[in-house]
């Protein structure tokens, strides 16, 4: 791949940003990568592993950058954007990696200076780990990045950002913000909430001890609740920012759960078998689409850093 941006600035240096930096380096997509994290400890780690050129202020990181990517929790984006806005150069592209899009557009949009192209995006990739050491260049390989152009987004800026994500190994699609938030409420947000809840149920069930939950976690509980180890700050912000769509899908989930409860109570085996057969086919479709594998970490080795 050839260079797409001369300078890319990453604001926030957790799993997503560190994986971006490594994927960009792998493909030679930028001549320079700068980064900033609020935590001094995170900045020190990023310097230690030579992730990128780490700056001590966000404004220093974004100065003269052709692309700036906000990789901070959704709830922090407005404040970060207000801080860096004066340092953004005309003609630069501003993007993000937030799991919610309408709230990001509402929070960031008013702070975008004239002449800066705002192109929100969301890579559908991650692990339960966090921090700069958790990143690996293969994170985005064969995963999807959804680009959600804001009103008036420059088509050339959108196409250039899409090329970057493809260069990092991702497949690219476009959606409007409202549809994105509904789709993600189904595929990510509500499943995370249910996983957190299941761990909470196990914790509250006094007849099952914590040691038994840990010791006897077979594949069902272990695999289903893996995502409950994800960053709590990020997920707090996701649920508060996408509450309408999440509550809609959670209501539908509750209705389905009540129907299954009724089938179990009335010993309606035909209903259970038909339901499991239909949902099994959807699960198989996910595997056939190449979006899952039995290999750990989606078959992508994380090299020690």
Describe this structure in words.
The structure is a single chain. The chain is of the alpha/beta class and 305 residues long. The strands form two sheets. The protein has a six-stranded parallel β-sheet, sandwiched between helices. A three-stranded mixed β-sheet has the order 7-8-9, covered by helices on one side. Strand 1, helix 1 and strand 2 form a beta-alpha-beta unit. Helix 7 crosses helix 11.
Topology:
Layout lengths: L4 E7 L3 H13 L2 E7 L3 H9 L4 E2 L3 H5 L4 E4 L6 H8 L8 E4 L5 H7 L8 E2 L2 E4 L19 E4 L7 H13 L3 E4 L2 H28 L5 H6 L3 H6 L7 H10 L1 H23 L3 H20 L17
Helix pairs in contact: 7-11
Looking at this protein, list some descriptive labels.
305 residues, alpha/beta, 6-stranded parallel beta sheet, 3-stranded mixed beta sheet, 9 strands, 49% helix, disordered C terminus
Main sheet: strand order: 3-2-1-4-5-6
- The structural class is alpha/beta
The total of beta strands comes to 9
Major beta sheet summary: 6 strands, parallel
In what range is the share of β-strand residues? 5-15%
Question: Based on CA inertia axes, which overall geometry fits?
Answer: globular
**Low-confidence residue ranges:** 296-305
Helix content: 40-55%
* Cα-based radius of gyration, to the nearest Å: 21 Å
Number of continuous helical runs: 12
Ends distance: 25 Å
> What is the arithmetic mean of pLDDT?
85
Taken in chain order, the helices and strands follow as EHEHEHEHEHEEEHEHHHHHH
């Amino acid at each position: 791949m050839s260079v797409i941006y001369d300078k890319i600035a990453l604001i926030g240096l957790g799993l997503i940003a560190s994986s971006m930096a490594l994927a960009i380096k792998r493909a030679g997509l930028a001549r320079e990568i700068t980064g900033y994290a609020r935590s001094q400890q995170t900045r020190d780690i990023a310097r230690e592993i030579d992730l990128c050129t780490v700056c001590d202020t966000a404004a220093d990181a974004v100065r003269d950058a052709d692309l700036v990517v906000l990789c901070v929790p959704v709830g922090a984006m407005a404040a970060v954007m207000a801080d860096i806005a004066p340092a953004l150069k005309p003609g630069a592209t501003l993007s993000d990696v937030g799991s919610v899009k309408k709230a990001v557009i509402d929070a960031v949009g008013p702070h975008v200076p004239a002449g800066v192209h705002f192109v929100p995006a969301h890579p559908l990739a991650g692990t339960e780990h966090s921090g700069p050491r958790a990143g690996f260049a293969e994170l985005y390989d064969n995963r999807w990045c959804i680009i959600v152009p804001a009103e008036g987004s420059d088509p050339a800026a959108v196409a250039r950002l899409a090329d970057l994500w493809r260069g990092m190994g991702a497949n690219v699609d476009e959606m409007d913000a409202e549809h994105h938030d509904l789709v993600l409420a189904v595929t990510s947000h509500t499943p995370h909430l249910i996983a957190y809840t299941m761990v909470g149920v196990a914790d509250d069930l006094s007849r099952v001890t914590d040691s038994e939950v840990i010791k006897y976690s077979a594949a069902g509980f272990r695999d289903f609740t893996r995502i409950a180890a994800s960053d709590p700050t990020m997920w707090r912000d996701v649920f508060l920012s996408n509450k309408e769509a999440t509550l809609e899908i959670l209501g539908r989930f509750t209705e389905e759960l009540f129907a299954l409860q009724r089938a179990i109570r009335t010993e309606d085996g035909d209903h259970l078998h038909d339901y499991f057969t239909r949902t099994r086919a959807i699960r198989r479709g996910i595997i056939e689409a190449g979006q899952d594998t039995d290999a750990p970490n989606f078959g992508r080795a994380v090299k020690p850093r």
